[in-house]
TrEMBL record, chain A:
The organism of origin for this protein: Streptomyces roseus
GO cellular component: membrane
Protein name: Phosphate transporter
Residues spanning the membrane: 6-24, 45-61, 81-101, 108-129, 135-158, 196-212, 218-240, 307-327, 333-352
Phylogenetic placement of the source organism: Bacteria, Bacillati, Actinomycetota, Actinomycetes, Kitasatosporales
A GO MF label: phosphate transmembrane transporter activity
TrEMBL record, chain B:
Transmembrane segments: 6-31, 52-72
Keywords: Membrane, Transmembrane, Transmembrane helix
Protein name from the UniProt record: Membrane protein
Amino acid sequence: MEHITLLLGIVIITALVFDFTNGFHDTANAMATTISTGALKPKTAVAMSAVLNLVGAFMSVEVAKTISKGLVNEEGIQPEVIFAALVGAILWNLVTWLVGLPSSSSHALMGGLVGAAVASAGLGAVNGGTLVTKVLLPAVAAPIVAGAAAMLAAKVTYKLGGNVGKKTSAKGYKAGQIASAGLVSLAHGTNDAQKTMGIITLALVAGGALAPGSNPPVWVIVSAGMAIAMGTYLGGWRIIRTLGTGLTDLQPQQGFAAQTSAASVILASSTLGFSLSTTHACSGAVMGAGLGRKGGVVRWSTATRMFIAWGLTLPAAAVVASGAELVMRTGDVGVAAVALFLIASCVAIWLISRRQVVDHSNVNDVQAAEEPGVVTTAMAAVTVPPTVAAEAAAEAVAGTTAAVTDEALKATIPAAAPTAPAAPAAAV
Amino acid sequence: MKIDWAALGSVFGVSLSATVALVALFTLGLVGLSKHETATEQGGTATLARSGAYACFALVTAAVGYGIYLIVS
């Protein structure tokens, strides 16, 4: 096996932790509607998703190659930068999980990389155009595309299938949902597990353990696949609850429409070369399907909180990551401090989450305390025509992030890392 | 800054039409099955409805297979 330094070991473990949080954060994307409509029992659903994620992780290494080759300048990047980026991404994933909001793990990771890069190489290295085309635009476009498709599909299936017998309909939509949710899980495994493989490979290359341009070693593929599958099986029940029952009330027909739309959008976007985020597509699809039924309502308060979280994802992860990068400049002590801080924060967030446990047993319960009947009814009464509201919300999100963009988050990845202080810690 | 509007537009078009087409096909399949079931309950047969339903499901299955192919490749 390759020669691995202590720092490199920390980076690899952190990357696997990120992969794990990515798994349980994104279980909701594939399985929330399947669980809330009762097509699968909660435990069965997460088990199925976990298996498909694992299978997906082994099916191809194309995405991992793009990350570890091309995207980042392998000559320049330091293991510390990757570590700082991962710290930012993990913390943001855990915080959004705690409040039960779906948010993109890829954006968190990208935000972390941007922040760490800015801290280590300065603002100049950042490229605003890339940020807009690769992050901002997809984040706004994904929910609109998926939402429109899901809404139309839900309308169609209600119209055509109005006189389908009860038994056939129950069985049929159940099977349909399981199939489309399976596709989403599989796609997630191939995409997101590979992101971690790419990151670990990148760290190995950066630390000098692998030759630049190498494919991910087998143990990297296996461990990344296992980590994401374990995370998925654990299930991010808080997020599943928000996506499955919090945003809107879904019937099997709508669940099927939403899941099919999500699967089509993910596959079409990755095939046609305009990558859209899975999380954003799934959330948009759920809202669209919610509006596709006569009398269906989207709870815009929950949706707004989700949009705000999306807008904050990149800057928040970037701030944490740049802080971590600055602390680590002090050398080994700094690295240890950041590692301790990460562990302490994870434990703290977990302890807070125990105060009000959400798991497979109560995932479908209505959140009565949060939204009293009066508010819900009032909201239903004043709900703005869907498209206008969705666009307004999307613009609001765009506004938030755009402001940050101007500040300086200009480049996805630093090409200028060599100017960073030559980290002596790499030789530990 | 160059935004690839054509790619975005084609993603929008393809996703929208694929979703609606698949869901419509699937629903038609269910309608056919349901017709067949009511017919058999009343002692009759509805062969056309049943074969139509199977044709719909076959198309949907083919689409899922193509999806898996896209993921793998």
